């Protein structure tokens, strides 16, 4: 019972189910990043376009150190700014959804990219920063410093925090 339209829709869904991001650093000492979405050949389904918009907002929030609470009203702002946009009408991200998307979706994705990049280098330095945070809790931040063959320079990348 699978007709041609069903097969094409299934192919489009499979081809667009994973978002691929290219991240480039403006300089080796700067923390400013440019996030560029690499689009597949076929257009995304509408629900995937909405998810893409929500993910891009989450990435922008991380990039600019916005608080998660900032996401609570942004959907309403987008609907007011872009009343003719169907994506803006469906855009719905709250602080809890954004937190979950970042920690359980985007975080593991970028951690895997970091690990792949480190496996491609001959040597690396594991850096750490131990401190007591504002809740009087000890925290250990781990960073890797290594030659990234992908970027062609030495990079320092955050890996994780241990409490």
Can you give keywords for this protein?
163 residues, alpha+beta, 42% helix, two-stranded antiparallel sheet
What does this structure look like?
The structure is a single chain. 42% of the residues lie in helices and 26% in strands. The protein is an alpha+beta fold. The chain has 2 domains: 4-119, no CATH class; 122-163, no CATH class. A 3-stranded antiparallel sheet has the order 3-4-5, with helices on one face. A hairpin with a 7-residue loop joins strand 1 and strand 2. Helix 2 (46-63) crosses helix 5 (95-119). The chain is extended. Residues 17-32 have low confidence and may be disordered.
Structure, briefly:
With 163 residues, this protein is an alpha+beta fold. The chain has helices at residues 4-15, 46-63, 74-81, 86-90, 95-119, and strands spanning 20-25, 33-38, 124-132, 138-148, 153-162.
Instruction: Tell me the helix content.
Output: 40-55%
What's the domain count?
A: 2
What is the first-to-last residue Cα distance?
Answer: 54 Å
Largest sheet: 3 strands, antiparallel
Instruction: Identify low-pLDDT runs.
Output: 17-32
Number of strands: 5
* Rg for CA atoms: 19 Å
Q: What percent of residues are in strands? A: 25-35%
- Spatial order of the strands forming the largest sheet: 3-4-5
Mean pLDDT over all positions? 82
Shape summary: extended
Structural class: alpha+beta
* N-to-C series of helices and strands: HEEHHHHEEE
What is the number of helices? 5
